[in-house]
Amino acid sequence: MPVVSDDGPLRVLDALAGPGPVAVTDHRRPVPAHLPAGLEHAPPGTWLVALTSGSTAAPRAVCRTAASWLAGVEPFARLTGTARGTRVLVPGPLSSTLFLHAAWHARQVGGRPLTEPLTTSRPWDVVHVVPHLLRRLLDEPGLDLSGRTAVVAGAALPPALAARARERGLRVVAYYGAAELSFVAAGEPAASGALPLFPRVVVRVRDGEVWVRSPYLALGYLPGSAPGPMRRDSDGWVSVGDRGSVGADGRLTVLGRGNAVVQTGGATVLVADVEAALRQLPGVADAVVVGVPHPALGAVVAAVVEAGPGAPDLPGLRQAAAAALAAPQRPRRWLLVDALPRTPGGKVDRAATAALLGTPPV
Fold it and tell me: Rounded to an integer, what distance in angstroms lies between the CA atom of residue 337 and that of residue 304?
């Protein structure tokens, strides 16, 4: 069965035990029209067609070989402490590559993948979450988390959230990757959020952009798929456009997608920089920054902020942001929300968030 819906997790995992190609779809969304026919023309060696979350545009169909995932099984098992008998909670849909890999990996090493909601009462040893779900987990009253491990990916992990998890006795492992790259950096994050490179990964930063060589890279996109950011040079280096830097200790800091900028009054503002600063403010659970049109400045920075416990009112938020950001970076428009729109996999739906401002982003 080349196209498998994520409403049958065991059926999905059984399908991946074969030679492929297998595409895993979200049962809440229509199957992309190009998918069934496109599988017939997938690149040679395609085993999995992973559909991206579609947080900013139509989902892309990424083609992967079995070898690209099998190569990471042992190092990821060591990193996360997953072994035979480990109970691995996977609280998201298997149409999300993050959760699909978590369940598949647990089965590969003889663990017990539990594809259940985060609020399950069944005991678990390792849980795979995005930062939004980690926050929900920590908000569960009376839950004993000591001696357990949370594997966090899919978005930047705010240092304050990681510290809060550790205070509860939860070991935190984070990783950075992409559907096109698989693992790039992974481990226990430094206070700055920087991560050590995953084994057998080599990174170069060219003009601020992260380029990767590793055995974990995808083949490319399925014919007929929406275009994606993956670029490959003649020497086998691949980039998806993320910005970052490598420190003297060899750790990678990822700063976000390089093309996400707002041109305002002659200044170029990097969205990732503003979002990172806003997430550090007390009471800010998450934030999305976009540019909205302005008749004189071309565009201004706008922020949609998810309020957390102890969040300040709007004047207080403006004051805190003014102290943390340079003048061009400071949002001119604000919207406070109880919860940001999210994809089924738990990532922020940036397109839906921008729509809350009522003005097309620029």
Answer: 7
